[in-house]
């Protein structure tokens, strides 16, 4: 994990300096001059050689000092800690929606694959994958939030301030972000189940007199879930990307929003900290995915023990 | 306060006339109304006003000049000089009065007594002088050093601040309306924990979510508003901002998209265009590529369909322009402005006379501004009809600013501030600058541009000054490297229950007299 984090840190740090513009340009603004930009660069230490800046940043980061925003002066740690719960809640909500809809849809799609239910689920999957996240979010916002008034159209209420309003405010964003992933899960699960039902061991099990339900839920589903776990872990990347759009549409003060603003302003410390955080979360998700394999498939657990 | 909504049929002149009358009324009546109403009812301000703004504030440092903070700066800070939209004359604010030396090279500001910062410390001449020292320093002055360009130094003298200028500059009073005073103790924390003398004091800023200010009971001026607390709610998406307004989550909307004007109006909101001081401009780098050819540049200036741009990009809420000052400026000249009326056949002739075969150039635009994207596309189509190929290169804001300050482009679309009160203000915009600060004219600017501008800048009599700047516009039109296109439209709106919303000539919200019922 550490080598991956270090490699990511190096890559992002140097890529940032390849991009044109920097925070000094943003601070000087349209009324500035190149001379002034240079002076500001010097005062921010941005005129030092890039490797020197990197080592300085790495040393401080390793000691828990993520620096302060060049633009608004807030501590990067404070900025991240303030916004992390919002994005974490959004991601969790999206995964809950994705599995709550995707698993039953995939199962139903497999069981009734030839009938109208199966076709309807296929249609749902195709639409949910194709529709852009921001468009879906705006639709939900207008029709469910504004016209019907069933749920808040946008905005965020912290859980600690009002748990009920917090959950209500996260329903539409979670649906927006989770539906696309639900469709992917449904597809993979359906494919996995159909593939599994064609296996010899299933024929044998049925021949031995096991019921269809028992064969499906005790044997086939478990094997099909392996691919679902894999794809869900992979979708996590798309989830973080989709979070930027969802947070923008629903005006959620999350990390996606912060990343977008910081890239525009070239707020280096914030971008670097966010990138490290994203990589770390990705690695943890991969770890969790690997551990889940062992939970689903005892053979993997046994091999590891051996 | 604005008593009538702005419609596309209303001219800018009529709009400014009406709104400025209302602003004047709002600013002159409040003391009377405040005294009467509060004395009669014994009530103190108690309302909370929620203002939705797009995007989030970058910095609360008073020296950070950016329209992003238009809504908040005048809540926390006061300027030395106030410049209302009408009458277009400076009036005392933190500086109660002032005196010039006969040669207009020294300005003595007499500070108002009894003004306190939000931390309880007194506003002193020394504090103001420290603000100038900080603002004039290019390392610490954020984005204000250019605006204070003609100021050499500032010194405290008793209760006065004496500004020494680099050259005579009567319009420095207008520039001082941009200059807001911070408590020196807050210099290092001003970005996110500011201390000023304004009608509201800073309470908290939750990045990405909201910023709260609360009424300052020790404010030096009596105000008519009943707002105790203002919460600025941040948005990063224009549609989310409008939906929030429709959903009743905000009372005032700043920086909305002009396309949403009708929708807001249908929900009972009062909407208006606030964009009076910025215009879209196309800079043609006269030192690079085919654009070195003057006939080609003149052709481009005449091939811009400004009316279509205003209709498409600004939904008819603004007006076209070919001069760097608005129509109501004494320095405006219609005869010069009409040089660049839309004329494709005339433009085509100029392309032919230029002698440039297959003329082409690339224009850099800021992709985060839809109006620039639309305008560029419209111009591209027009130029295509006259045989000029314009390639559009969208970049992000930071890259765009970087290129704009370096001059490393063939053409660049940007915004320039048009000086209603100060025609000289145009030169501070990057593409117009003269050496040694020049961006396009890094080393040699046209001699008549240098001489006409220098003459105009040194002219102190208002009538003669306006005439002198008209001579500058003639030179700008002669060399055609900076092509004004249209005044920007910024949609602002307020609920019907909110009154007293006003702006100064720099488009900054003046919140002290806002009443929310």
Shape descriptor of chain A? elongated
**Strands of the largest sheet of chain B, in order across it?**
8-9-10-1-11-18-12
Give the helix level of chain A as a range of percent: over 70%
Q: How many helical stretches of chain A? A: 13
The averaged pLDDT of chain B comes out at: 87
Mean pLDDT, all residues of chain A: 87
Structural class of chain B: alpha+beta
How big is the Rg of chain B? 23 Å
Binned, the helix content of chain B reads 25-40%
Largest protein-protein interface: A-B, 53 and 55 residues
The structural class of chain A is mainly alpha
Estimated radius of gyration of chain A: 24 Å
- Put simply, the count of helices of chain B is 15
Shape category of chain B: globular
Strand content of chain A: under 5%
Low-confidence stretches of chain A: none
State the oligomer.
Answer: heterodimer
Strand segment tally of chain B? 22
Write the element-wise H/E pattern of chain A from the N-terminal end onward: HHHHHHHHHHHHH
Low-confidence stretches of chain B: 1-42
Query: Termini distance of chain A?
Result: 24 Å
């Amino acid at each position: 994990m550490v080598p991956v984090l270090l490699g990511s840190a190096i890559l992002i740090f140097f890529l940032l300096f390849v991009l044109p513009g920097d925070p000094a340009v943003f601070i000087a603004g349209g009324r500035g001059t190149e001379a002034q930009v240079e002076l500001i660069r010097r005062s921010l230490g941005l005129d030092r050689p890039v490797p020197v800046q990197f080592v300085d940043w790495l040393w401080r980061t390793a000691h828990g000092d993520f620096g302060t925003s060049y633009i608004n002066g807030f501590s990067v740690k404070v900025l991240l800690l303030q916004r992390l719960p919002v994005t974490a809640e959004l991601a969790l909500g999206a995964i809950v929606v994705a599995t709550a809809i995707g698993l039953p849809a995939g199962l139903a799609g497999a069981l009734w694959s030839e009938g109208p239910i199966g076709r309807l689920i296929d249609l749902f999957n195709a639409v949910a994958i194709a529709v852009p996240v921001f468009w879906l979010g705006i639709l939900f916002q207008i029709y469910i939030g504004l016209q019907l008034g069933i749920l808040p159209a946008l905005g965020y209420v912290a859980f600690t301030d009002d748990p009920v309003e917090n959950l209500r405010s996260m329903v539409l964003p979670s649906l927006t972000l989770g539906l696309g992933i639900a469709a992917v899960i449904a597809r993979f699960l359906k494919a996995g189940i159909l593939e599994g039902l064609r296996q010899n061991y299933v024929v044998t099990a049925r021949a031995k007199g096991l019921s269809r339900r028992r064969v499906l839920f005790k044997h086939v589903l478990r094997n099909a879930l392996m691919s679902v776990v894999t794809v869900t872990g992979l979708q996590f990347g798309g989830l973080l990307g989709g979070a930027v759009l969802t947070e923008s549409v629903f005006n959620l003060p999350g990390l996606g929003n912060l990343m977008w603003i910081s890239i525009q302003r070239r707020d280096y410390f914030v971008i670097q900290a966010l990138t490290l955080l994203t990589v770390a979360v990705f690695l943890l998700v991969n770890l969790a995915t690997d551990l889940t394999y062992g939970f689903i498939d005892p053979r993997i657990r046994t091999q590891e023990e051996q | 306060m604005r008593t009538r909504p702005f419609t596309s049929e209303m001219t800018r002149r009529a709009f400014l006339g009406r709104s400025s009358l209302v602003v004047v009324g709002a600013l002159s009546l409040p003391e009377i109304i405040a005294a009467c109403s509060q004395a009669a009812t014994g009530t103190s301000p108690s309302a909370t006003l929620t203002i939705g703004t797009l995007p989030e504030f970058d910095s609360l440092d008073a020296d950070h000049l950016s329209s992003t903070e238009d809504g908040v700066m005048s809540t926390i800070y006061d300027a030395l000089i106030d410049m209302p939209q009408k009458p277009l004359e400076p009036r005392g604010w933190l500086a109660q009065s002032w005196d010039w030396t006969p040669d207009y090279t020294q300005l003595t500001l007499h500070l108002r007594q009894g003004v306190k910062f939000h931390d309880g410390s007194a506003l002193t001449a020394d504090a103001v002088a420290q603000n100038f020292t900080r603002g004039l320093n290019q390392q610490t002055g954020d984005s204000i050093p250019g605006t204070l360009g003609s100021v050499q130094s500032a010194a405290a003298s008793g209760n006065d601040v004496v500004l020494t200028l680099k050259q005579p500059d009567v319009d420095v009073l207008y520039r001082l309306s941009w200059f807001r005073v911070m408590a020196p103790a807050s210099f290092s924390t001003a970005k996110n924990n500011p201390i000023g003398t304004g009608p509201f004091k800073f309470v908290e800023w939750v990045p990405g979510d909201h910023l709260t200010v609360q009424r300052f009971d020790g404010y030096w001026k009596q105000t008519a508003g009943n707002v105790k607390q203002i919460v600025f709610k941040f948005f990063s998406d224009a549609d989310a901002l409008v939906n929030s307004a429709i959903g009743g989550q905000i009372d005032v909307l700043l920086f909305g998209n002009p396309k949403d004007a009708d929708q807001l109006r249908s929900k009972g909101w009062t909407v208006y265009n606030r964009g009076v001081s910025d215009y879209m401009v196309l800079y043609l780098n006269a030192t690079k590529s085919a654009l070195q050819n003057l006939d080609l540049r003149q052709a481009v200036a005449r091939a811009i369909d400004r009316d279509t741009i205003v209709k498409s990009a600004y939904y008819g809420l603004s007006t076209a322009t070919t001069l760097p000052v608005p129509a109501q400026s004494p320095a405006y000249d219609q005869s010069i402005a009409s040089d660049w009326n839309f004329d494709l056949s005339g433009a085509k002739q100029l392309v032919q006379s230029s002698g440039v075969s297959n003329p082409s150039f690339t224009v850099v635009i800021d992709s985060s501004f839809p109006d620039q994207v639309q305008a560029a596309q419209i111009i591209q189509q027009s130029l295509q009809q006259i045989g000029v190929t314009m390639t559009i290169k969208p970049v992000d804001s930071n890259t765009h600013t970087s290129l704009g300050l370096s001059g490393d482009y063939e053409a660049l679309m940007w915004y320039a501030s048009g000086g209603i009160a100060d025609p000289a203000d145009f030169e501070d915009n990057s593409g117009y600058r003269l050496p040694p600060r020049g961006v396009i004219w890094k080393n040699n600017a046209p001699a008549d541009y240098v001489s006409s501008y220098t003459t105009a800048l040194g002219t102190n009599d208002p009538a003669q000054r306006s005439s002198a700047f008209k001579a500058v516009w003639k030179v700008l039109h002669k060399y055609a490297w900076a092509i004004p296109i249209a005044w920007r439209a910024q949609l602002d709106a307020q609920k019907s229950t909110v009154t007293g919303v006003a702006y100064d000539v720099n488009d900054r919200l003046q919140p002290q007299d806002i009443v929310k019922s």
